[in-house]
# Entry
Amino acid sequence: MSKIIRKENLAENTKLFDIEAKLIAEKCLPGQFVILRLDETGERIPLTVADFDRNRGVITIVVQEVGKTTFQLGEMKIGDSLLDFIGPLGNPSEIEKFGKVICVGGGVGIAPIYPIARALKEKGNKITSIIGARSKNLLFWEEKMRNVSDELIVTTDDGSYGRKAVVTVPLKEILDSEKIERVVAIGPPAMMKFVAKTTLPYKVKTIVSLNSIMVDGTGMCGACRCKIGEETRFACVDGPEFDAHLVDFDLLMSRQKMYLDEEKKALKRFKGSINYGEKENTHA
Amino acid sequence: MEKKKTPMPEQEPFERIKNFNEVALGYDEEDAVKEAGRCLACKKPSCVKGCPVEIDIPGFISFIKERKFDEAISKIKEKNSLPAICGRVCPQETQCEELCVLGKKDEPVAIGRLERFVADWERKKGMKTPQKVVPTGKKIAVIGSGPAGLTCAADLAKLGYSVTIFESLHKTGGVLMYGIPEFRMPKAIVETEINYIQQLGVEIRTDMVVGKSIGVDELLQDFDAVFIGTGAGLPMFMHIPGENLNGVYSANEFLTRVNLMKAYRFPEYDTPVRVGKRVAVVGAGNVAMDSARTALRLGAEESLIVYRRSEKEMPARKEEVEHAKEEGVRFMLLTNPVKIFGDEYGFVKKMECIQMKLGEPDESGRRRPVPVKGSEFTVDVDTVIVAIGQNPNPLVPKTMKGLEVGKHGNIIADEDGRTSIKGVFAGGDIATGAATVISAMGMGKKAATTIDKYVMEKK
Ligand SMILES: Cc1cc2nc3c(=O)[nH]c(=O)nc-3n(C[C@H](O)[C@H](O)[C@H](O)COP(=O)(O)OP(=O)(O)OC[C@H]3O[C@@H](n4cnc5c(N)ncnc54)[C@H](O)[C@@H]3O)c2cc1C
Ligand SMILES: Cc1cc2nc3c(=O)[nH]c(=O)nc-3n(C[C@H](O)[C@H](O)[C@H](O)COP(=O)(O)OP(=O)(O)OC[C@H]3O[C@@H](n4cnc5c(N)ncnc54)[C@H](O)[C@@H]3O)c2cc1C
Ligand code: FES
# Structure
């Protein structure tokens, strides 16, 4: 059992949780993820480590509410416990002195890009970060990102805050104006796909973190398989980070839609149950 | 004397494909005593030679004859701490029962069914709490809670060691829990056996992915020895076009969703699974039979086994093949998939196969299947389950410098379970490649003896 010791609303439908997890906090590195299960009937879902405090034994996760499990987690309170909290899983990000690096975080992807940007900065890289979202109410961690970046660019699709653009617009401008050693991008698959397309002509090594559907997260089931170049790889053990220029993003997006019908059904059922007086069941 | 085994009461096929309850219902006392009566109690029993853990088979059967079930179960447990499991899933027809002298002319004694009967009898009555032993003060770490790890842990605990099992999943039991379906291996039984092992003093830490959450090197600092029993969890794929379409599962994923995550009770349980109307399962081992039968229970109208060799070469237990046939699973033998086609949304629609014929024997001694040119045809399917085997789980070996591994990633361990690293022992599917419950247990047991010797000599 892992206890929630802090909860914060970061943005619309986006919540932060600090979880007591001493062993994981001791080990985890930027780029790795955890798998959690809320209760006995729960699904195992992966979430990237957004921050960690080794001294206090705390892992921070940032969750966007998109379906049954993430909404149920969103309803949980400080002091509640998660039944299972497993990790750190996956391979850590490659943190080296590369030179000039651009870190791109889209939507909830801002959270996992943060510890990577920080580690790259600490290694002596010059960091330009681009964070973006559809709209102002979905943005968070601007200050945190500014603190670990030499330069920070904020964009919104609708122009409600920062620059009115998608993240690839400033990205392209920078690539046109200076030599960049590496780009790391985390966000919705469509965003990562366009980042890959944008950097390809400049031959800049580009890393993305793939969020395929997972079950065990230890290489046992193959649910998370992705196509990287000509090879099938398991995101949970071979990734989650891969060379963006080799990723088949269309396959990733298609595989993420495998259970759309079931997901809708589960969410509807869950929302029904919290609206009609069964609330105590999900909180006990 | 009866020429045939006392029949096993079973759920009727048309009933059982609508539920996940156990298919074989088990002998009652009268069945058991009657079947025990068929045993000739040979002076030099051959059956024992077929048992990888050398249970005194005529010994426990004669207790059943006398209705001394307590003594019968004690006799089994001298050698086998998981009889309710082995009685259900061991391939007796190629082990003990194959060597039974009755089998030369008639049917052999139903040793497996008798083993299961006494184990179930004990469980219903309530298991004896094990006696406490004098602690040695030494600590052993066991990685993986499948049959190999559980057996090794139980044996070491009985010798007075303080044993901790590290299991990566949230549930204990390995394949018994996530792989073999409820209708063949009720999870409540696995849980009872695990409780027993906990009563022996074994501590179980789930959610611990060794190699990630904690390293073997760290374990070696805190423990006097480490046993690795991490199994053969890496699913193999066919590497044919279309294998990444939605609706193509590894058997591991399909069975894990259903058994471990209880997708058959979706939406009460959160994890979904998709079966569709027509399911093709590729392969013909136990894993394939379990997948095909599970698909039927989840509502598939048609469940096909697609296998490149003929019936004779099918590696599944005979009983499971029979059960699958009774339930309506269709067998497409001498057939090999070559390509899977999807619809415009990326979901499986049909599968192209090619007919095979048997050629010269290959290194396994079985006749090698070769494609018949121009014999391609397609079958309409919504789901394809790939059950062509699993390789040893690379997670632990990959993180250990100096650990010798074989061609397929299996940890190289000698007969007694020693690996190339001092203080590190291994057994079960991680060492042998995918095998059986009883062979994993056998190796877990051997390793426990070796570990005891090693720790005592090391001081
Ligand atoms: C390595 C990795 C890291 C991730 N990190 C984060 C993170 O830091 N913050 C965050 O908000 N989200 C993250 N995700 C996505 C998150 O796991 C899903 O949003 C979550 O599983 C949705 O579950 P649900 O029941 O709420 O929604 P559902 O209604 O079940 O699903 C909504 C969508 O989420 C995806 N999804 C569903 N089940 C799974 C599953 N078991 N595994 C992976 N994806 C699934 C599907 O594409 C689906 O269409 C990450 C995913 C991966 C693989
Ligand atoms: C569907 C199916 C049906 C089968 N049917 C039969 C049958 O009828 N009869 C029969 O005799 N055999 C059968 N088998 C084979 C049998 O189940 C295996 O041979 C046996 O379970 C092997 O035991 P094991 O202890 O070596 O490994 P496993 O049972 O695989 O257990 C390994 C355990 O280690 C854990 N683990 C893996 N990596 C790590 C890590 N890094 N850290 C911590 N824990 C880890 C796993 O989660 C798992 O719990 C079947 C197998 C399958 C998949
Ligand atoms: S999630 Fe099962 S193999 Fe990656």
Observations:
- The mean pLDDT of chain B is 93.
